[in-house]
Specification:
With 760 residues, this protein is an alpha/beta fold. Helices cover 22% and strands 27% of the residues. The protein is built from 20 helices and 38 strands. The strands form 10 sheets. A 7-stranded parallel β-sheet has the order 7-10-6-11-13-14-23, sandwiched between helices. α8 packs parallel to α15 and α9 packs parallel to α10. The radius of gyration is 28 Å and the shape is globular.
Length: 760
């Protein structure tokens, strides 16, 4: 039943100047409301929000005197009425309407809607997942766990969404598959159990936008790729034109998938993201994977931070992507204390093309050229830097060798492609070579050491010749993993006091399903299509972590989101497959800092039995927000509660990592700086156990732990300790890092936490 709004109420709230029509442009706003202030006369939050809009409307008088105010112009202003993710709504408001709304009883805060961007087989094996032991069999491969993704949609015909071997849909599930353009509910099954789409915010921002696929069907590919990475079913014969050939599956192959499409070919907006997460909470997902983010937004205006706090309250584990703005420090987004923030790293799998020289010597370079090449040999010529297009066009049908010595690889590749030669061999040290590997002409990329073999042959041969063969896959490559240079680095601008990212996972050239209508390559102006594609980015590492979270949720349904995150972080690997510290491609292959890789590389099987966990409750997060000097309204925007207590503010969150900010550059050489942390760990291992502290120190600092031994008498017992960092004088480097490990008898459990000290 429509709620009728007394005319005098609106007049009490709105000044006369507001009733004068304004020429100012309207915009979309996300509005937070205090639900506890809703008068009893309103039957629902939705009717109360409509009343607020009616009172704020430029057409208040006309609206209030109509028989049914819901038929008036202010009704069309409402975009979404949120139920869980936030208490509030999104609406199209003029400046005068916004000012009037701020005087409405129960108004908390508001901000403009803004765009959101996506962070755009072997990985399961690389992570140690196998059918014989570990978290796969213990979790029954994620059986009965529901993973929700907010992304670009889904391609339901993908073989990865077959429901062979899937259990029945859990009875608690409240979601559905919505009909739309080229999509109907019959396309869902026991694997794909939910499909919804959200674009009201996008349309409000761009009323004339053309949406060709107004449904959950994926025309971009990003959502199909991420969802099958997290939970794709088993598919035999998966490959990208012969690269990475084999059986493919997601991290949790028996988990159910629900897709919430809120990212579109023409963009995505915060109001739609909130609506998608809001609906996922209502539907009953257990895990959420969010390969998207926003830069430069405070926590109290970040739709992902706000909506995931509501998810946290419902026990939903959320994994997010760190972003692709590396290798620069402080570029990370989703630095949200209550979610898992995932960086991206490489795997032990290489894709390449083999160059066979006229003398019979073969060398392998990196390549993903998707077409077959002739095994017959053709002339090969060294062209230096390949920056002279005129000279390249004179080469003819030969393989050209280019030496990148001035970071001009992009120009060289473009020129060689334009010159229409037989093929290209590029000798380079460029760190992100994967972004050039999917070339539109026969090309392979060599490091200088391998390239020297080719150049030496050309110099010594009177008639040098060579051939290139593609579709080579090399497994067991070392060292691996390595941090991808594009992976965004901490500290988090929105909450630097919590060390982010949390961990890293496979994100480089990940093979997963792809819409058949979306081309994956262009060779000689001919578009090529594939049901699998190789993509890189933290968008790819995030669903790996979400899938592992689903496995842990299946194995330990009683664990809180913080417990799952803690288990994944404290058992992560800090060493690569050569047993050396994980290296950072973006830092000249130096040992990776926790600001790049967090705690280390995700290890699913170890995470199933972490020994100790660092748990965090809602009150702890509120104490952190209070200590960040957020106003009551800003805290309420996140928690959706007006009864937050700031009696015990604390920046010292019970987190499985440590970051200390020492502003000592201008300090005297003997000046002492001290920072102390308090932590509480819960024993979830054997009943009686003893853990001893082992510290990997940092030059110029003294790190101490008190007590340095924790003796647990029973399971679920909690014990506390303090970690103290002392430093003298200015730091030699901007960032120093070490670690604290709690180690039990015979090192069955090693509970490791990274430590960072920085002047940033």
């Amino acid at each position: 039943m429509a709620t009728h709004i007394p005319l005098y109420v609106c007049f009490l709230l709105i000044p006369i100047s507001h009733l004068i029509s304004t020429l100012a442009e309207s915009d979309t706003y996300i509005v937070h409301m205090d639900l506890s202030a809703m008068p009893a006369v309103f039957s629902s939050h939705h009717s109360w929000y409509m009343a607020a809009l009616a009172c704020a409307s430029d057409n208040t008088v006309a609206a209030a005197t109509t028989a049914n105010p819901y038929l008036s112009s202010y009704y069309s202003k409402l975009i979404y009425s949120y139920r869980n993710a936030i208490h509030g709504f999104s609406a199209i408001l003029s400046p005068s309407e916004l000012e009037a709304l701020k005087r409405f009883p129960g108004y908390v805060s508001s901000y403009r809607d803004f765009p959101v961007k996506a962070d755009t087989t072997q990985s399961a094996k690389f992570l140690g997942l196998n059918a014989n032991s570990g978290v796969w069999p213990m979790s029954n491969y994620g059986k009965d766990v529901i993973i929700g993704l907010v992304d670009t949609g889904i391609w339901p015909e993908s073989r990865s969404f077959n429901d062979d071997g899937m259990a029945e849909i859990p009875s608690r599930w409240k979601g559905e598959c919505e009909d739309g353009t080229q999509f109907n509910s019959s396309m869902c099954n026991k694997k794909l159990i939910g499909a919804r789409f959200f674009n009201k915010g996008l349309i409000a921002k761009h009323p004339n936008v053309s949406i060709s696929m107004n449904s959950t069907r994926d025309t971009d590919g990003h959502g199909t790729h991420t969802s099958t990475t997290a939970a794709g079913n088993y598919v035999e014969g998966a490959s990208y034109f012969g690269y990475g050939s084999g059986a493919a599956s997601g991290m949790a192959p028996r988990a159910h998938v629900a897709m919430y499409k809120a990212l579109w070919d023409v963009g995505g907006f915060a109001s739609d993201i909130i609506a998608a997460i809001d609906q996922a909470i209502i539907d009953g997902v257990d895990v959420m994977s969010l390969s998207l983010g926003l830069d430069g937004v405070p926590l109290y205006e970040d739709p992902i931070a706000i909506a995931t706090f509501a998810a946290l309250e419902k026990g939903i584990f959320v994994a997010t992507s760190a972003g692709n703005e590396g290798p620069f420090l402080g570029t990370l987004h989703n630095g949200i204390p209550w979610v898992l923030t995932v960086a991206a790293s490489t795997m032990d799998r290489l894709f390449g093309g083999t160059v066979t020289l006229g003398n019979g010597v073969s060398v392998i370079g990196s390549s993903l050229y998707p077409a077959n090449s002739s095994p017959s040999q053709v002339p090969i010529v060294f062209m230096g830097s390949c920056e002279n297009l005129t000279e390249l066009k004179k080469v003819g049908f030969k393989i050209v060798v280019c030496h990148d010595q001035s970071d001009s690889l992009s120009i060289q590749v473009d020129y060689v492609n334009t010159a229409r030669v037989a093929g290209g061999v590029f000798i380079t040290n460029y760190p992100d070579i994967e972004f050039f590997m999917q070339s539109s002409f026969p090309a392979t990329f060599m490091n200088p050491e391998t390239g020297e073999i080719i150049m030496d042959y050309i110099k010594k041969s009177s008639e040098p010749k060579a051939s290139i063969e593609f579709s080579k896959t090399i497994l067991g490559a070392k060292p691996a993993p390595r941090m991808a240079s594009y992976s965004s680095r901490g500290p988090s601008p929105s909450c630097p006091i919590v060390l982010k990212p949390d961990l890293t996972g496979p994100g480089a050239l990940i093979l997963a399903s792809w819409p058949k209508i979306n081309p994956v390559a262009d060779v000689n102006s001919r578009l090529l299509y594939s049901e699998f594609n190789l993509l890189s980015g933290t968008s790819m590492s995030c669903p790996h972590a979400a899938g592992v979270g689903a496995l842990l949720k299946g194995a330990h349904p009683e664990w809180s989101p913080a417990a799952i995150r803690s288990a994944m972080m404290t058992t992560s690997d800090s060493l690569d497959n050569t047993l050396s510290p994980i290296k950072d491609i973006g830092d000249d292959n130096q040992p990776a800092s926790p600001l790049a890789m967090g705690s280390g590389h995700i290890n699913p099987n170890k995470a199933m039995d972490p020994g100790l966990i660092y748990d965090v409750n809602l009150e702890d997060y509120v104490n952190l927000l209070c200590a960040l000097n957020f106003s009551d309204q800003q805290i309420q925007a996140i928690t959706r509660s007006s009864s937050n207590s700031c009696s015990q503010p604390s920046l010292d969150l019970n987190y499985p990592s440590f970051i200390a900010f020492f502003n000592t550059n201008g300090s005297a050489s003997n000046a002492k700086t001290v920072q102390e942390f308090s932590r509480t760990v819960t024993n979830i291992g054997e009943g009686m156990s003893t853990y001893n502290a082992q510290v990997t120190g940092m030059e110029g600092f003294r790190v101490s732990v008190v007590p340095d031994e924790l003796v647990f008498k029973e399971k679920h017992q909690k014990l506390s300790y303090k970690l103290r960092i002392e430093g003298w004088g200015p730091m030699k480097e901007t960032v120093a890092f070490g670690s604290l490990s709690w180690v039990d008898f015979e090192a069955k459990h090693v509970v490791r936490s990274p430590i960072v000290v920085t002047t940033l």
